[in-house]
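Quick sanity check, Scavenger receptor class B member 2:
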Amino acid sequence: MGRCCFYAVGTLSLLLLVTSVTLLVARVFQKAVDQAIEKNIVLRNGSETFDSWKKPPLPVYIQFYFFNVTNPEEILSGEIPRVEEVGPYTYRSLDWWTADTCNMINGTDGDSFHPLITKDEVLYVFPSDFCRSVYITFSDFERVQGLPALRYKVPAEILANTSDNAGFCIPKGNCLGSGVLNVSVCKNGAPIIMSFPHFYQADEKFVSAIDGMHPNKEYHETFVDINPLTGIILRAAKRFQINVYVRKLDDFIETGNIRTLVFPVMYLNESVLIDKETASRLKSVVNTTMVITNIPYIILALGVFFGLIFTWLVCRGQGSMDEGTADERAPLIRT
């Protein structure tokens, strides 16, 4: 009976170890989970994903901040404009460019992303306010309502004055500088310049040209927190500023002394945060997935456990053989 138990433990340990290694190498459970997620994330009429896409359950809040001019008379005489931020007012609710690569539409509108995202990925979105595609890159690991998230941000290179962005200069070769984008070509010729709030990540010349600009990363940066398993947005803030290009007209006495500059009008902060009920349902899915994908490791742990028992039995049996009884240690033939 003891010998039978001895071999049974050894065989079980070996089988568990081989099974766990096979499952880990073949990624059986991980592939099954990935396929299930990809299948359920498809927009099909009547599915929960389709209903959420058609009528998003999460409230989206848009905050408007206006810049109130406090020295209009001094501006006309050539002094630096002084503005005061007013707000927020909160509510719920391409052949333009000079290079073919700039006219391409890449990515989604930013409402959702594909599942199984890794931090090494670069994600593309098309914000219609900027009339161009932009990319976002991984920044930090976050937790939102107890759920793991990857924080992606808009890098400064998007609006940098570099050769990669030369195709966005309108007219061709007329680049205003880093941190601003002339979108007049897609706004019916209106002299509208887009930037981040308070000229965040823009050249210092834009900030110093207006008295009252205070760029701040915490309040003026655009970011999105994405659950890497499902691609669902857990928290996001899209912030951009609308400016107008102002220049003096020598033929008009009233504007003859006005400085040529990019003048801020208002900026928007569009934000969303997953609610507790939705987060609870998503957390259940994430936890179940973690258990399933960790099954090979559980089997591996059991294999190691029974392997230790097998080793202990071997050592114990060897020790018993070495010690023996007094009669067993006595020589068979005495001289």
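Posting the structure with no commentary besides this: The chain has a mean pLDDT of 77.
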